[in-house]
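[PROTEIN RECORD]
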Amino acid sequence: MSATMSVSAPTRDVALAERLSRSRRRTNLIIQGLCIFATLIGLLFLASILFTLLWRGVGALHLSVFTNVTRPPGSNGGLLNAIVGSLIQTVLGTAIGTPIGLMVGTYLAEYSQGSALGNAVRFVSDVLLSAPSILIGLFVYTVLVVPFGGFSGWAGAAALAVIVIPIVVRTTEDMLRLIPTALREAAVALGAPKWKAIVLICYRAALDGIATGVLLGVARIAGETAPLLFTSLGNLNWSVALNQPIASLPVTIYQYAGSAFDDWVDLAWVGALLITFGVLALNIVARFALGRRK
């Protein structure tokens, strides 16, 4: 009797282990299948968007798009002023927001040490990160447009900078926290002050992640429309004066897409195509440059 029980107990354990193994394999296959299905759906939407942009935009892409400014319907207008205005405001917004976000992220990762001020700054940054862009546009409109008596390119760049800041703050803080503490201690042991260890060692080690955050910020502001409607407004004429209303691709797309004129609608599709592939080209160039650095 005891011999039978001693033999059957291991057999039951083996059978139970096999059933659990089969159950885990089935669960793994189900989860893996769901992940692949979700990935295919995401790729399908992405491919459909790119295909639609190519289908509607490439046909209307001519040299006049880059040589002519926006004109009345039927006048063979282009997007030169909108392209230049978008480049100016995007570059300025990135140039203003990136150093601020970098310094704030460095403070949160290296100096705050769980302080009340650091927690408050982190909370405000997270709130700003999820804030609707139209609210940022209204804020800048109240601060820079109304007091100075008019729309301007400076106000548009400031609104875009406010959008960039929390993105750079979050990525900078996260990347610096991933740097091993031993790396900082080694620099301090060699006599380097803390700021020099951060600038010469931590920044270099976290450069890829910080650059990714900056690129995310550029991709975010490149297609923003609502903040610019309240700040730089847009301009159908050629203007690069930052103290005046200035054109931009997102605002032009917004104005042209709902138009009843076919040539304006075609230009709206061309503008969307230029923004999409401009951001894509920027990411490819940055990845290539970072890869060469490695």
Notes: The domain at 64-293 is CATH 1.10.3720.10 (MetI-like fold). The mean pLDDT is 91. The first helix runs from residue 2 to 57. DSSP finds twelve helices and no strands in the chain.
